[in-house]
Design goal:
Chain A: It is found in: Cell membrane. The structure holds two protein chains of two kinds. By secondary structure, chain A is mostly helical. Chain A has one domain: Orthogonal Bundle (MetI-like fold), CATH 1.10.3720. Helix content of chain A is about 80%, strand content about 0%. In chain A, helix 4 crosses helix 5 and helix 7 runs antiparallel to helix 9. Chain A is elongated and about 70 Å long. Chain B is mostly helical. Chain B has a domain of about 150 residues: Orthogonal Bundle (MetI-like fold). Helix content of chain B is about 85%, strand content about 0%. Chain B is flat, with a radius of gyration of 20 Å. The chains are: A mainly alpha, B mainly alpha. Chains A and B meet through helix 3, helix 4, helix 7 and helix 9 of A and helix 3, helix 4, helix 7, helix 8 and helix 9 of B.
Chain lengths: ~220, ~210
């Protein structure tokens, strides 16, 4: 264990860039998967014959697959059918596909938690279905969904570490590069990246439990 | 695709077996650990509560892959030699136990205070009341989320492929890179995973619905 050597300025700078990659990939994936998840959740709730059934089945399939498999599929599978992807685009694609399926379930449960009378009331006041969804149902549902969404985002941040296998230069990948040069750096490296992941995720977790307590009362 | 499955049947099956074995061991271990930490978290002893919540927060907020790599690389270097399958299963158990502890704690909290008071005033000790009155009700309430944790556990067992754990994902990579039939291999692998997770997932949804009524 060589802490002083492991935490040299050049290593720290290298690792910090990985921290930024983790944050960046997470942030982009969170925004995209929230938007897509919201749309999919509404489609699934809508019970339009066929459409919501087929979408629902695809969502169930994706939710029940390991993210790692989806990651391999995007990174190694897409080039096989002629779509060129880099490690950043493959990671974001896989994360968005997987997480938007997870989020759509949260959205559907959130919308279902809103009393149907709200929709009936809005419709009988002359709103269209889309207007009622947009102005009445979704705002209330998002309110209920926030804690579940945040804990989903926590697992998204943790899941970015899997992308190390497709050479995304994020935290874990860079830590491995550093300790592969000197094995006495191994423990210091795992310690510091664990702390870095912990800081992001713990902050999000605490926010989630704070919000769920606030909304419960 | 069918030929690919036929010629690599034993490879896929070995992986499927390792995935199931690892998931079942990790489920048993994480249920036991999770129950213990849930009980510590609701206990009246403050130091024990703190120990439990530190454990839970640490494992909930660090990626499973980091936990697994520590057991695969660091532990053999300083403590004891373990193979990839063992390291992966230990990592999986510890990681999942934190989530299960939270689930069971929520189950215990959902049982009314009156239950504990009633049991105690009928002459039961705290341990007896927990064992015979609170926990059985808590487990029943926590069954659907526990099932979902088990589904996550099966999916997460794919990290064994990082540490040469011979699971389904690991074998899939072997097949994919020896036959160069990447897409068919991953489709077959996906179907194997779905055989395990899909029925569980639908059963849990059904259970949630019947419990609501």
């Amino acid at each position: 264990m060589n802490f002083a050597g492991a935490y040299s300025l050049i290593n720290m700078r290298y690792l910090f860039q990985g921290f930024l990659v983790t944050l960046g990939v997470s942030a982009v994936s969170i925004v995209l998967s929230f938007i897509i998840g919201l749309i999919l959740g509404i489609i699934r709730y809508s019970r339009i014959k066929w459409v919501s059934g087929i979408v629902g089945f695809i969502i169930d399939v994706i939710r029940n697959l390991p993210l790692l498999l989806i990651l391999f599929f995007t990174y190694f599978g897409l080039p096989a059918i002629g779509i060129r992807v880099g490690s950043v685009s493959a990671s974001i694609t896989a994360l968005v596909v997987f997480e938007s399926a997870m989020i759509s379930e949260i959205v559907r449960a959130g919308i279902e938690s809103i009393d149907y009378g709200q929709m009936e009331g809005a419709r009988s006041n002359g709103m269209t279905y889309v207007q009622a969804m947009y102005h009445i149902i979704v705002p209330q549902a998002v309110h209920n969904m926030i804690p579940a969404l945040l804990s989903q985002f926590v697992s998204l941040v943790k899941d970015t570490s899997l992308a190390t296998i497709i050479l995304l230069p994020e935290l874990l990948y860079r830590a491995q590069i550093i300790y592969s040069q000197n094995s006495t750096y191994m423990i210091p490296m795992y310690l510091i990246i664990a702390v870095m992941y912990f800081i992001i995720c713990f902050a999000l977790s605490k926010l989630a439990s704070y919000l769920s307590k606030r909304y419960a009362s | 695709m069918f030929e690919l499955l036929q010629s690599n049947w034993s490879t896929f099956l070995t992986g499927f077996g390792h995935t199931i074995l690892s998931s079942i061991i990790a489920l048993a271990a994480s249920l036991a650990l999770g129950t213990i930490f849930a009980l510590l978290e609701v206990s009246e002893n403050k130091p024990l509560r703190i120990i439990a919540s530190v454990y839970i927060e640490i494992f909930r907020n660090i990626p499973l892959l980091v936990v697994t790599m520590v057991f695969y690389l660091v532990v053999p270097m300083y403590v004891v030699k373990i193979d990839g399958f063992t390291a992966g299963t230990i990592g999986l158990s510890l990681y999942t136990s934190a989530f299960i502890a939270e689930t069971i704690r929520a189950g215990i909290n959902s049982v009314g205070d009156g239950q504990m008071e009633g049991a105690r005033s009928n002459g039961m000790t705290y341990v007896q009341a927990m064992r015979y009155v609170i926990l059985p009700q808590a487990f029943k309430a926590a069954l659907p989320p526990l099932g979902n944790q088990f589904i996550n556990l099966i999916k997460n067992s794919s990290v064994l492929s990082f540490v040469a754990g011979f699971d389904l994902m690991y074998q899939a990579d072997t097949v994919a890179f020896s036959t160069y039939q990447v897409i068919p291999t991953y489709i077959i692998t996906g179907i194997f995973y779905l055989i395990l997770t899909m029925p569980l997932s639908y059963y849990m949804k059904h259970l949630e619905k019947t419990m609501k009524q």
